[in-house]
Design goal:
By secondary structure, the chain is mainly alpha-helical. It has two domains: 4-85, Orthogonal Bundle (DNA polymerase, domain 1); 106-268, hpI Integrase, Chain A. Helices cover 58% and strands 4% of the residues. A hairpin with a 2-residue loop joins β1 and β2 (161-166). The longest helix is centred in the first third of the chain and has 18 residues, at 21-38.
Length: 278
């Protein structure tokens, strides 16, 4: 059983490293699971960590899930100055195609917008449009402020990095009307009833509520998928992956490549258009 003081100290270390709140929560849960599964002491050795990694694989967890859990434990080892206790992540071949069952298409996105409009849910429509037309993370919604709308430019701070993004003129026009109607002169545009910035769970629920009316699979409807749709749309127009990485706030282009993967069906269509068979 994990010592609460150990988790608290790790959480403090993650905060000091400027990890996002969502990552801190995910990593502390993963570390708690490690200690529960292994019964390890405060200073686990590499063999124990590696055995836990392999046990997760044997249970059928995907390499990406195993590596995500392992990253939390390896960071814990860093926090207690025990780098020798870190285990290597599983090697993975980079995926070539996106999962068509989870890829949100433009047509499905516009059906979600129509569903929001026909039900009179203007806030949800604006949330969809804001995330999809800027490519921001849902945690970055707080930086879409009344001041940013007036400047048509938002300063985003996330994961210890800062970047500036331009806001589409038509989006600014719609958000200005929203701010005027709700008397929002300063601070975040999207607020909860208590006056705080909307949290990811609330946004997620608002989007899921549209699925049935829009006839879009609930598996495809979550805020981060709008970010992926923005990335694919931008890349199809611009073909500039470096610029896209800057817009998304990625440190590595390899991360950006994940966002612009096409489905296997799209790749098959391109192969058929090449006409290389007699």
């Amino acid at each position: 059983m994990v010592n609460p003081k150990t988790l608290s100290a790790y959480e403090h270390w993650l905060t000091h490293q400027e990890y996002s709140p969502a990552t801190i929560q995910k990593y502390t849960h993963a570390l708690a699971r490690f200690f529960t599964d292994t019964g390890a002491g405060k200073r686990p050795d590499r063999e124990t960590v590696a055995a836990w990694r392999d046990s997760l694989t044997a249970k059928g967890y995907t390499p990406s899930t195993v590596n995500a859990l392992l990253a939390a434990v390896n960071d814990y080892q860093e926090s207690i100055d025990n780098p020798a206790g870190k285990a290597k992540p599983l090697k993975r071949q980079r995926k070539i195609f996106a999962d068509p069952g989870r890829e949100l298409s433009r047509a499905e996105y516009f059906r979600l917008l129509t569903a929001a409009r026909t039900t009179g849910n203007k806030r949800t429509q604006l949330l969809l449009e804001t995330i999809c037309s800027t490519g921001i993370r849902v945690s970055e919604l707080q930086f879409i402020t009344a001041e940013a709308v007036r400047r048509r430019k938002a300063s985003i701070r996330c994961k210890g990095k800062c970047r500036e993004i331009l806001l589409p003129a038509e989006l600014c026009h719609r958000l200005q009307k929203w701010c005027k109607k709700h008397r929002i002169h300063t601070g975040p545009v999207f607020l909860s009833r208590s006056g705080k910035p909307l949290c990811r769970v609330t946004v997620w629920k608002l989007f899921k509520a549209l699925c049935e009316r829009a006839k879009v699979s609930a598996r495809k409807v979550f805020p981060h998928n709008l970010r992926h749709l923005f990335a694919r749309t931008f890349y199809n127009l611009e073909k500039n992956i470096s610029k896209l990485a800057d817009l998304l706030g990625h440190s590595s282009i390899e991360t950006t490549r994940i966002y612009i993967m096409e489905s296997g069906a799209e790749h098959e269509r391109l192969l058929n258009q090449m006409h290389l068979l007699l």
